[in-house]
Design goal:
With about 325 residues, this protein is mostly helical. Helices cover about 75% and strands about 0% of the residues.
Length: about 325
């Protein structure tokens, strides 16, 4: 397992370099000019100096190489300096946002807690709800619980977040007045009252996200459980007199979790990416909204860095899913 993990990590290096090159080339081909939002009263010679200050006057290969050095060499040094109080990155030029003129990673770190608190909570809630529903629906196939779960899952998976988000705002915020319709990112939890306000403003975005994630995971869990419940080893275990709870919750569940682990692991990067639509609907000042704002402002360093971070997370959690395969299924070996 260790050899497999090291081999995959080494293979991930050229993979990520190729992904970064593809992202850079795609953004280079994208239309738009970061100087388009500059007022018309600014003289052309001043605009040209601003372009040069942003590094737009340099050839594309040089700009790509500078971004690689800044992201893979300077930014890790900044992290080390922040943790240990050293000064390795002092005086080095970091990846700068064209829109805010500040380091991209500093902005990402500022926005990340908002995304993790809302989207991360929704993902955990969805897993805790979806797995029991999928297990019981498969065990009681075609029962009223299974039929109800199938209907709710189809609705949750079919209704887009921009519709369900507006719907819950109209019902629970406008009509009932239970929860605020706009997420207050400036709220700091210092006492019980502020904690209650934080929970209240998290309820609706978490509800919308959890509904969609639960619908997907519960269907995967149900299908995987049904596939394993009809296997020969289940009939053999029952014939040997093993208890029904042990058969279902130990043997069947462990084998059924193998494909579900892939869905869960590959869905985790979306937590860091944020639910773009949901963050827009509820005005959550997270990573998803940051990406949308960077795209609208043609902030290429921000878009390039965020997109590459998502790619790194996808490659990483693919590896984690493969490792979990070996833990859940003893038949899988990575020799």
């Amino acid at each position: 397992m260790l050899t497999f993990t090291v081999r995959r990590l080494i293979l991930a290096v050229p993979t990520l370099l190729f992904i970064s090159l593809v992202i850079f080339l795609l953004l280079e081909l994208a239309p738009g000019d970061p100087m388009a939002q500059v007022p018309l009263t600014v003289p052309p010679e001043v605009k040209e100096k601003m372009r040069q200050a942003l590094g737009l006057g340099e050839p594309a290969p040089i700009r790509f190489w500078k971004w690689l050095v800044q992201f893979f060499w300077i930014e890790p040094q900044v992290l080390v300096d922040h943790i240990f109080g050293t000064s390795f990155s002092q005086g080095d030029l970091r990846v700068i946002s064209w829109q805010t003129r500040s380091p991209v990673m500093d902005i990402v770190v500022q926005r990340l807690p908002q995304t993790l608190s809302v989207v991360g909570t929704a993902y955990i809630v969805a897993i805790l709800i979806a797995l029991p529903i999928g297990i019981y629906s498969a065990y009681r196939q075609y029962s009223w619980f299974d039929q109800l779960g199938t209907f709710v899952s189809m609705v949750g998976f079919s209704v887009p977040p921009f519709f369900s988000g507006v719907l819950v705002i109209v019902i629970f915020s406008v009509q009932l007045g239970w929860f605020p319709s706009i997420y207050d990112t400036t709220l700091k939890v210092t006492d019980w009252d502020s904690f209650v306000k934080q929970l209240q403003q998290m309820v609706m975005p978490v509800m919308v996200l959890a509904l969609q994630i639960t619908a997907q995971l519960s269907r995967f869990m149900r299908a995987s459980m049904l596939d394993n419940l009809n296997q020969d080893y289940v009939r053999t275990a029952r014939a040997k007199g093993i208890g029904e709870y042990t058969v279902v919750m130990v043997h069947v569940l462990r084998n059924s979790m193998i494909p579900v682990v892939t869905v869960i692991a590959l869905g985790i990067p979306s937590i860091f990416g944020g639910a773009i639509i949901t963050e827009q609907v509820f005005k959550v000042n997270g990573i998803g909204q940051l990406l949308i704002g960077a795209i609208q402002a043609n902030d290429l360093p921000m878009v390039q860095t965020l997109t590459f971070i998502f790619a790194v997370l996808i490659v990483l959690f693919n590896l984690i899913a493969d490792v979990l395969y070996g833990i859940l299924d003893p038949r899988i070996r990575y020799d």
